[in-house]
Amino acid sequence: MITIDKTSVQPFYEQIILSIKRNILLGIYETDEKLPSVRELASNLMMNPNTIAKAYKSLEQEGVIVTKKGLGTFVGALSHEKPLSTQIDGWKNKLAPIITEAKFYGITLEEIMKWMKEAYEGESK
Amino acid sequence: MITIDKTSVQPFYEQIILSIKRNILLGIYETDEKLPSVRELASNLMMNPNTIAKAYKSLEQEGVIVTKKGLGTFVGALSHEKPLSTQIDGWKNKLAPIITEAKFYGITLEEIMKWMKEAYEGESK
Amino acid sequence: MITIDKTSVQPFYEQIILSIKRNILLGIYETDEKLPSVRELASNLMMNPNTIAKAYKSLEQEGVIVTKKGLGTFVGALSHEKPLSTQIDGWKNKLAPIITEAKFYGITLEEIMKWMKEAYEGESK
Amino acid sequence: MITIDKTSVQPFYEQIILSIKRNILLGIYETDEKLPSVRELASNLMMNPNTIAKAYKSLEQEGVIVTKKGLGTFVGALSHEKPLSTQIDGWKNKLAPIITEAKFYGITLEEIMKWMKEAYEGESK
DNA sequence: GTGGTCTAGACCACC
DNA sequence: GTGGTCTAGACCACT
Predict the structure, then answer these.
(1) pTM of the full predicted structure?
(2) Which residues of D sit within 8 Å Cβ distance of B?
(3) Is the CB of A8 under 7 A from strand E?
(4) Among A101, B90, B122, C12, which is least packed by CB within 10 angstroms?
């Protein structure tokens, strides 16, 4: 359910975060469902438990998952329905430099939009 | 002409790289024009010359600028007209996780495209 | 395995680059093998870590090695099997002035070829 | 008679040195012939006189040319017939890293020799 | 004065 | 522990 590309430049913990968010989006993880424990996931992915813990911690701060002491971590309720405007702004800030680079490489707006549409619809619900 | 956001998470030298590419796109820097010297730009931006040098060297490896020891740094000719496929692939890899994140925040494809179009056309030649 | 001539006019970081390429050619470093860490090599060679890092980064851009933050640096796969034409051109440009110099010194083509053959076969896999 | 490639990575003064040596080899400059003055050559090549002076000084140290105060600089006698062993050794040291790089790029010995032969015979006497 | 190399040492992100 | 970024400041090669 959670796969990591160890050759990617994207940090492992970010890949885990996105992967879990993706699973929630896709309905693979349902509200209140129990997530694998840090140790379990670490051993599955052959990764350092600290890396998993970091991802879980970040997700909990965002309100996406909930940790119940002694029980485990669980998917939060509808957490992704209310994006904070600060999150949106942060997201826009990531987009800007990418667009500049694309223009510099001579990529047309049409091409960008085509790729983006594919990426967006590629993982639909 | 070159401005840096010292509070950004984006490294200074990457901001400089993007800023120079943007200036070339906008026609502010023309082919063969001399860029500010490493020391000059460093003092303008209140930064260490090494940081500027790092940005310049990276741009030279991309073929965007040309440096001549003892003379200075100059804008290269037509350098951005021929993107390597590896550059395009690298670029796409940056786009993908951003799209996933956007979906999680509930941003629609229409919104993304609108912002992207604005960003793209905002810096026209 | 990696040795540096501190009296050479060749920059340290270039010597490191060549030394690592040589080790890969000789099979001393195998694909996916972990290279010494920046700090470790720096302390072995009695150099500043920045200098090692510079060499490693250049090798990564060439695709010779792969670095993973927090894990280390690793020998890339088959990286040297696909030289870019720009690399070959750059290489030829280095050869030309050396030949001119040799002619001036009265070195014959036969002598050059003999030395070259020795140098080429001296480091076989 | 002396041409400089201002786009080359090779320093200007080295190009001048090689160019003059080449002219001597080709018989364009004969023994005791007067070379253009520093200022004259500088203005012809559109370069800083210091750069020319540096090249002349280096050639004089090698014994290739002779400066006579108040008269000018002249081609030395048979200077290139007696290469010092230190010069040859220095030359060999330049060759070694180039060969290593060539091997790494997968260039065969045959290719190297072919290019070398062309370069060597390309400018014959 | 220009960029290139190197050292020393700090702080950060990642695992 | 790993590499990445940045500062400070030195010395060198080139024009």
Answers:
(1) 0.84
(2) 6-7, 11
(3) no
(4) B122
Within 10 angstroms of residue B32's Cβ, the number of other Cβ atoms is 10
What pLDDT is attached to residue D65? 87
The distance (Å) linking the CA of C70 with the C1' of E13 is 9
Q: A82 pLDDT band (50/70/90 cuts)?
A: low
Task: For nucleotide F12, give the residue with the nearest CA to its C1'.
Answer: C9
CB pairs under 8 A between B and D: 3
d(CA A122, CA B99): 10
Query: Which residue do the tokens 């060549």 mark?
Result: C18
Strands (E), chain A: 65-68, 72-75
Q: At residue C71, what is the residue type? A: L
**Residues 26-85 (B) near nucleic chain E, CB < 7 A:** 35, 37-40, 50, 53, 56-57, 60, 67, 69-73
Domain extents in chain D: 12-75, 85-123
pLDDT confidence of residue C18:
94
Give every CB contact of residue A64 below 8 A, 6+ residues apart in sequence: A20, A21, A24, A75, A76, A79, A80
**Chain C residue with Cα closest to D25:** C104
For residue B37, which nucleotide's C1' is closest to its Cα?
E2
Contact B116 A113 (CB under 8 A): yes
Q: How far is CA A115 from CA A9, A122, B88, B113, in A?
A: 20, 10, 12, 11
Residue B37 is predicted with a pLDDT of 96
pLDDT digit string, tens, across residues B17-76? 999 999 998 889 999 999 999 999 999 999 999 999 999 999 998 889 999 888 999 998
- In total, the C-beta contacts within 8 angstroms joining chain A to chain B are 111
Give the pLDDT score at A125: 44
- The DSSP annotation for chain D comes to -----TTSSS-HHHHHHHHHHHHHHHTSSPTTPBPPPHHHHHHHHT--HHHHHHHHHHHHHHTSEEEETTTEEEEPSSGGGS--HHHHHHHHHHHHHHHHHHHHTT--HHHHHHHHHHHHHHT--
Are B125 and B27 a contacting pair, CB within 8 Å? yes
Tell me, what's the pLDDT at B123? 61
